[in-house]
């Protein structure tokens, strides 16, 4: 597929049907999307941490609520910076929604100096993050695919269709390749199922919090 998406350039796509949060009115959205750069790394990490704050796995990773946002944002920043170099980060408009993708079409390196950076970012809870990393690695498919590592919408902008718009945008660019993600609650699992993702047997963190590996088959072109 010819690539027309460039760093620093906003590209309109759609339109996609969305819902106005307050009135409930439906309308067509043609959002602008840009590819995030290293300058956006902290903003993106903070957005993901804010959007994911209520998910059960976050409480396992950082039991201290006072420290949770700071720690998980620091951890997410490691992967956001890695995606700037080795994946793609799609931001809508002024940044209320983001999707972080990695192409598993060839071997990907680990984030630079990952073990040290993880320890510095997560401190006393580093082993909990390593447990999650091991579970993700054990359940990650081997076949070529694109991995949706994070899809996050700011809580004040949820239920407007922004996440759906980002999914449609990337799905149209996959050139027939499958896609993969890990859903962290039943609501998200069911949302992704409506977009063609098929849930596999879940795996659990030590406290029982579940993740559903989900696979979206590729298309014959």
Automatic annotation (TrEMBL):
<protein>
    <submittedName>
        <fullName>GNAT superfamily N-acetyltransferase</fullName>
    </submittedName>
</protein>
<dbReference type="InterPro" id="IPR052523">
    <property type="entry name" value="Trichothecene_AcTrans"/>
</dbReference>
<feature type="domain" description="N-acetyltransferase">
    <location>
        <begin position="31"/>
        <end position="217"/>
    </location>
</feature>
<dbReference type="Pfam" id="PF13508">
    <property type="entry name" value="Acetyltransf_7"/>
</dbReference>
<dbReference type="GO" id="GO:0016747">
    <property type="term" value="F:acyltransferase activity, transferring groups other than amino-acyl groups"/>
</dbReference>
<dbReference type="InterPro" id="IPR016181">
    <property type="entry name" value="Acyl_CoA_acyltransferase"/>
</dbReference>
<dbReference type="InterPro" id="IPR000182">
    <property type="entry name" value="GNAT_dom"/>
</dbReference>
